[in-house]
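Async update (no meeting this week)

Hi team, since we skipped the sync, here's where things stand on the single-chain job. The sequence we agreed to prioritize is pasted below, unchanged from the tracker. I ran it this morning and attached the output directly underneath so nobody has to dig for it. Comments welcome in thread, and please keep replies under the output.
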Amino acid sequence: MSVPRADVLARLPKSAADHAAQIMSHFDRLAVCINTGTNIPGVATPNGQAAFLFLLTSALASAIRLSYGRMIWLALPYTITMTFTGLAATWFLL
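Output:
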């Protein structure tokens, strides 16, 4: 059974409710930072990109000279873009 935060905070004394709301806000921001920090590098690597892995395991890989190192090189712009976007979003929106 899930209880909305507002209901939980309404049952607490005023000073405790204010402190609990502040702690909840801090943990919300911390969760976003952790999620951003772990998901962006995972997606920005060739292992996180299913299309690259599909090509690497297909017969087409040798025809287009696709190797694991080449996949990393191709994923580099995406990695840089996603890293800076995540950093900017975390810094300015949180």
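Quick observations from my side:
The chain has a mean pLDDT of 80.
The chain has five helices and no strands.
Reply here if anything looks off.
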